[in-house]
Fold GDP-L-fucose synthase.
Amino acid sequence: MLLPDSRVYVAGHTGLAGSAICRRLEAEGHRNLLLRTHTELELTDDGAVERFFAAEKPSHVILAAAKVGGIAANAAFPAEFLSVNLRIAANVIESAWRHGAEKLLYLASSCIYPRLTPQPIREEALLTGPLEPTNEAYAIAKIAGLKLCQAYRRQHGFDAIVAMPTNLYGPQDRFDPEAGHVLPALLRRFHEAKETDAPDVTVWGSGSPRRDFLHADDLAAACLAMLRGYSDEMPVNIGSGGDTSIRDLAFLIAEITGYRGAITFDSSRPDGTPEKRLDITRITALGWRPAIDLRSGIEQTYRWYRENCARETATV
Ligand code: GDP
């Protein structure tokens, strides 16, 4: 059972999802968080992971560490996205089980569903069709991680559960115009265009793809609900329950950042999956609801970006 003094290891605690999960755990009185930065613990190194688990023996493990990136980074570095994420999952799941962890929560991703699948996407759609080519390497690694959780549960009775988060955003995201995901990339691009009075901002693709955006703080609440109340091999979708076109997102971000110039859609850039709205029946049955609407979530994220990143990125 997850108690305030449980030894909880959050792998990936400096990232978007992991940092939100830590904030939530701390806010709920958890005082025994085990955290290691990437420099302190290389999760692709099986020996290092094994030694860490042998020494620290966490009772709960949240696997939020991954090599992640937007549509361009996925297409450019498939070898790393596949290899790094496979090794992280294999090492952490094996060591957690071997050293007696009571429960492990693995964060997969909505991009592992087939490219064309009925909306909203139910968990049962997994592996029913071909994947989206722009993020196939990442998706295959995440599917393998999910299958590892199911295999350790079946073979060893290990209580490994899987969350399927949608497109996340929030503080600690990567506000990188090339390698980042769409929401942080556009926040930065529109912010810089506003600051420099640029006449035009380019948005990739046609603007018609639809994405289901969820604030990382909402994801964190859902992860805790799963740790406390879920134990089954079926993965659980975590989404907002709605979706937004990239075009509408761009106009919303322009409004929030105060940018008044033109917006151009560059159709030479890939659109990726046309839509991926998640069915959230399973997670809402655990009593969870998203609490942060898209506009106020972006406003809060934009404040965080201005306070923490805008000065350093403005000179890049
Ligand atoms: P995806 O959900 O895996 O496709 O991840 P992304 O967040 O990278 O992209 C979502 C959608 O936003 C795709 O249709 C992109 O073409 C579109 N998009 C528009 N502008 C940008 C941008 O500046 N960066 C990224 N990453 N995507 C963009």
Q: What stands out?
A: The chain has a mean pLDDT of 96.
